[in-house]
Design the sequence.
């Protein structure tokens, strides 16, 4: 099924997978607990923790180099209706990866709208709110330095 | 040579139990949690992540607790833990131009587009002990000021691009080749001469103290490259990974990194006009001193490429890269305390023989 996805569909899938991966665990857990749909699924790949080598770029924008590794947990599930969901989530939280994989599958299923409304969109709003708060705190430390003419220059 | 010893199991067990007791300290004092370490000793956690070369706050905090706060021991524990995990692959290289900055300063330009953002910093503090911290207090979050009116640019312009526009600074990297994967010292041992990607990987996980001392040495004249902090950034970047089963990249999370771009004067060579050259520092977490030192050392190590005379330790890549890793260094230095009885017996015999020989020769001469 995923093979037939068009470019735009890939972009929207990337979008929700990113939101699921970057979600704070507490938020995701809470939303999942109150999610009204029960969705039987099979674990195609049990949550498994491994490493991803993270690459940076020389000078920020130049040639890649290996910066170091991060822990990552992945999981693959399939719903009874056949949709396959994947998750790759930084860190070692198995439950996070499992729920993210189920949500990825749900977003491809007939429950798309409900999942988007009750999980993806609220998570996105929370992330935006958190980022805005952090940015507002940083913005308060924005500084204007004045250069002062020193006496000996006069 | 180290010759294995047998026995002593009981004493060793007891020593470890005693270590555990010392770690716990006075039991009337509440035990520290890894969550407390993660939240309240974040610079220690970040250092262990960066030198342990593994981005995982929880493992880092656990290692610090287990090592009783000995950060090099904690780094060792993290490195060992890393070897138990399989690697899924490599991320897409991230571009720090898209960093969500928490701190961003330039020492070269006062008025930079996007502004100077101090963030949470030691800078301009008086370095007087704050005795009020001896008391526990509930800090209300609202005591931190926020400003919604100022706004931070999503993609802050890079300070070095300003110089770049005038052609006064070299490009970020001349050896740009997306098809060749960068060198990886976790897969193959260090070989010399090293390319810049290998050097940067080595420096990113190098001991902060070692890099600090070497960086300092370049400032004091042992490499003749006077650096300016063109830009220092700390903030979050998204990490993208393309799993085979999906066939397209996805963001798997965000990480906090520190970045420093040093600019150094360069008088030019036969092929290059006088211009500024760059040294680069990047590492996990908020590790500003580390990335500043790294950038100075990265620049010094480019001596060959820039046709500079090599006179200083910081320019000697074999010296720098072979001694920068504190896990390797501590392993070799600390192994000296393990039993070397047989080895030392042999040395003892040798010295006795040499002395006897010398005595005989002296007597013969008299």
Sequence:
């Amino acid at each position: 099924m995923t093979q037939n996805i068009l470019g735009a569909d890939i972009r929207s899938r990337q979008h929700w997978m990113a939101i699921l991966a970057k979600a704070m665990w507490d938020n995701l857990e809470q939303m999942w607990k109150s999610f009204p749909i029960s969705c039987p699924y099979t674990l195609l790949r049990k949550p498994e923790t491994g490493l991803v080598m993270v690459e940076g770029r020389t000078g920020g924008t130049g040639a890649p180099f290996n910066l170091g590794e991060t822990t990552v947990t992945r999981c693959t599930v399939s719903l009874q209706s056949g949709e396959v969901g994947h998750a790759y989530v930084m860190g070692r939280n198995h439950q996070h990866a499992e729920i993210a994989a189920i949500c990825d599958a749900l977003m491809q299923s007939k429950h798309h709208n409900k999942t988007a409304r009750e999980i993806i969109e609220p998570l996105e709003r929370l992330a935006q709110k958190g980022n805005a708060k952090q940015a507002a705190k940083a913005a308060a430390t924005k500084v204007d330095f004045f250069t002062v003419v020193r006496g000996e220059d006069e | 040579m180290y010759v294995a010893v047998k026995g002593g199991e009981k004493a060793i067990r007891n020593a470890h139990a005693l270590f555990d007791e010392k770690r716990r300290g006075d039991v009337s004092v509440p035990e520290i949690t890894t969550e407390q370490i993660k939240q309240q000793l974040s610079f220690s956690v970040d250092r262990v992540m960066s030198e342990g070369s593994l981005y995982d706050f929880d493992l880092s905090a656990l290692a610090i607790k287990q090592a009783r706060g000995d950060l090099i021991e904690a780094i060792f524990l993290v490195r060992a833990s890393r070897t138990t995990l399989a690697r899924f692959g490599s991320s897409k290289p991230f571009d720090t131009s898209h960093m969500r900055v928490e701190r961003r300063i330039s020492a070269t330009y006062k008025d930079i587009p996007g502004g100077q953002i101090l963030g949470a910093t030691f800078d301009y503090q008086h370095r007087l002990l704050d005795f009020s911290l001896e008391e526990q207090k509930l800090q209300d979050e609202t005591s931190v000021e926020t400003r919604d009116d100022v706004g931070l640019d999503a993609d802050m312009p890079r300070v070095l691009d300003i110089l770049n526009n005038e052609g006064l600074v070299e490009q970020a990297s001349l050896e740009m080749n997306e098809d060749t994967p960068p060198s990886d010292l976790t897969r193959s041992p260090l070989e010399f001469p090293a390319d810049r990607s290998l050097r940067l990987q080595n420096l990113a996980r190098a001991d902060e103290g070692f890099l600090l001392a070497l960086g300092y040495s370049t400032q004091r004249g042992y490499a003749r490259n006077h650096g300016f902090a063109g830009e220092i950034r700390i903030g979050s970047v998204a990490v993208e990974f393309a799993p085979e089963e999906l066939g397209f990249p996805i963001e798997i999370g965000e990480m906090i990194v520190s970045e420093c771009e040093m600019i150094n004067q360069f008088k030019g060579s036969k092929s290059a006009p006088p211009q500024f050259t760059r040294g680069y520092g990047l590492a996990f977490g908020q590790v500003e001193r580390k990335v500043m030192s790294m950038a100075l050392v990265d620049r010094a190590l480019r001596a060959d490429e820039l046709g500079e005379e090599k006179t200083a330790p910081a320019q000697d890549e074999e010296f720098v890269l072979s001694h920068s890793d504190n896990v390797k260094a501590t392993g070799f230095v600390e192994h000296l305390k393990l039993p070397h009885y047989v080895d030392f017996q042999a040395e003892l015999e040798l010295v006795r023989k040499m002395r006897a020989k010398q005595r005989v020769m002296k007597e013969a001469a008299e």
